Every structure is written in C-alpha cells, then in structure tokens.
Amino acid sequence: QVRLVESGGGLVQPGGSLRLSCAASGSIFSIGTMAWYRQAPGHQRELVATITSGGSTNYADFVKGRFTISRDNAKKMVYLQMNSLIPEDTAVYYCYGRIVRIIPTRTEYDVWGQGTQVTVSS
Prior knowledge:
The chain is built from no helices and eleven strands. The chain is mostly beta strands.
C-alpha cells in the first residue's frame, strides 16, 4: 500500500518559518505531480503549490514569494519551505501525489497524506 506521511508542522510566531516534508513509501514505480494543499477550520481545502516530476512549479497567489515547493525524486519526497508566515496560514497541510504503479498493470491514482497542523500565532 502506498502512503504519504507529512512532518514538520507546529506552532510558529508570525514572521517565522517552517519546512514541511512529505515522504512516500510503498510499491511505487514513479510519482507524477506532487502538491501541498491546506484546509483551515470552516474552509474548503485549497491548493497551495504544485511541482511536476520535472520540477516545474506553480503557486497560489496567497503564498507567492513566501513559500517554495521542492522535491527529491530519488528519495520520493516533497518539501514546502514556508517563510514570512502569517496567522492566515494556520491550517492543516496535506501532501498529495499522483502515484504510478506498473505491477500487475500500469495504474495511476491519487494519494493523500493525513496532514500536519501548522499554527501561526504569537
């Protein structure tokens, strides 16, 4: 079974930084697009940033210039460096990956992590 496990969340003061990590494990041939989403209390889950297997990135307007997504394909990991954090960034952050398996047949499917809490507060 394929799993995505996030780490690195926590409590940080406004203006501070955090680095989230997400590790994929299981029977994986390759991983396509990976992404970070977030969901604040009372709000829908929203896209934060995406990164393709080739390294192309896209960001939501509300994090441009503050957050950086990156990945290590060999380690099957994706990261989110978050700088200049503000209280509005408080949310559960979820890792997403488009997983490719080839055994027994080629199959692609979406996998989500369980989330990691980020709280920005003084």
